[in-house]
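Troubleshooting: if your tokenizer reports a length mismatch, compare your output against this known-good record of 75 residues.
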Amino acid sequence: MAMDPETRRITMQDREFAEGDFPLGLRGLDWPIRMGEISDEDWAKMLAGTLSNDEVNVLHRATWTKNGATPWPSL
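Known-good structure output:
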């Protein structure tokens, strides 16, 4: 997971983040990153697009909080 420090939105992917995963320039620098676990069921629902945007946001934020020392939206 990575958190956009400007919008505090969370993004997830099933591989480590690399430089090309972030916006170009200063906008893409210093995004906090956490490794975490998400259930296979929730991951499949997200990828299938069966969750609303609000449901995805709740899942992202809960997963961020569960897998780090500080809760969302803390940086």
